[in-house]
Amino acid sequence: MIKKKQLTLLIVISVLLLILVAGVTIGVFASDTTGNDEAQVDSSSIFESISSLEALEAGAIDGDELLSMNGIDKDSDSDSQDTVSKDVNVAISLRSIQNDLKIKFTDSATDRLIINVDFTVTVASGDKTFTYSDSDMDGIIYIPHVDAGEYKVFLSDITSGGVNYSADRSQIITVSDAIVYAKVDVADEIKTEAEINVAEEDTKVQDEDETTDITAKVEAGAEGVDDAESYDEDISDEAEDLLAQIESETNASEEKKKIEGAVSGTLTAPAIATDPQYVSAHSGVKGIDVSKHNGNIDWGAVKASGIDFAIIRCGYRGSSSGALVVDPLYLQNIIAAQGAGVSVGVYFFSQAINEAEAVEEASMVLELIKNYTLQMPVYIDVEKSKGRGDAISVEERNAVINAFLVTIKNAGYTAGIYSNKLWFENRISTGLFLDYKIWLAQYVDIPTYYATRYDMWQYTSKGSVPGIAGNVDMNVIK
Known about the structure:
By secondary structure, this protein is an alpha/beta fold. It has helices at residues 2-58, 63-69, 74-78, 198-201, 237-259, 271-274, 276-282, 299-304, 330-339, 355-369, 394-410, 421-426; strands spanning 86-95, 101-107, 112-113, 120-125, 128-133, 140-143, 149-155, 158-160, 163-166, 171-175, 262-263, 266-267, 285-290, 309-317, 324-326, 343-349, 378-381, 415-420, 437-441, 456-463, 472-477.
């Protein structure tokens, strides 16, 4: 009985052992199978990636598609990436004419002004430091009213538009109280009309006769009388009486001239042909002055018509911003005129308000004429513009004119000044400039300017010359 129970227990134990061995065997097999499956998945992923890269290289898919296929959101990832930048080495150039400082920022690789970047500089002198910003982002910081002394200029590094701007070193300049009338470098400051608002900058009054006596301008509401000067509408009773007397005498004179065959100071036939004063005033070498306003010119036809010389506008300073602007037809005119055998000079319409700006204007002219031989003078044109140059005093205007003329003369050219009778008599101390050429504008048959001598006379703005469409200024050299 006992032996039978022992046998049964042995059989049960044997069966349990068999089940345990079978379970272990099955678990090991299952584990091997899972590992093989994972290996297959990993291997499949690798081959898929290689295939995608090959497709990208072959152009079958683009980079965005590849990122998307691998579960990467391009837009969200870009937020964590820095903007790709480049480095620009900034060259700092310093210029001082008299008690001022101009700082220019140029790309050392291109030598061009860097615009649209708000540069900041520190200017140090002794134990004092000042900070300035290029707020209008034109590549230039101009500081007027600077005391004489030595200044060091440091540029603050800046990143703008994904570009890093920095300068290798600081620059040093000595500012002086004394002005030197010599050419300064303004080549990178000269603008074309495409870079400015022409309507605001080129405002010289065209075809308005401001060349006659001042009494013709002193009327209530008369255009052309500067409010800033003594000819305002709110005048005293004594002044009104004086103007009334002048007007009465003028009217009486006009009536007398009508009787004698002259109208408003302009002679009429047959007196023109025989009047000795008229013949004397109009005797001399005939020429014209031109600018962009005269359009394209046939200079061969101009020469053939008997015109011997031309004074060509090379540029102007903007009436509003003060920008230095080249006349868009200057180069075309000077090359073609000289090619046709016409003697050439140039003029610059000034809007300078101080000596430093006048030296800059003269420097621009010298830059523009350096490749040409002039037979005629270089003139500064000073007259009404309805701009920044109108408001300065007579003393300031004299200083501007002198600075321009001396700078041109020091460069070896003949210099002169152009203006009208009204300005020569009232807004310029013309007697100070008798060492230079005087170019008078007065649109009458016989000039009535006697304050000083004049060397050339612009007698009309409505002349007609073959080769030029429309009116043209006519001149005669005495």
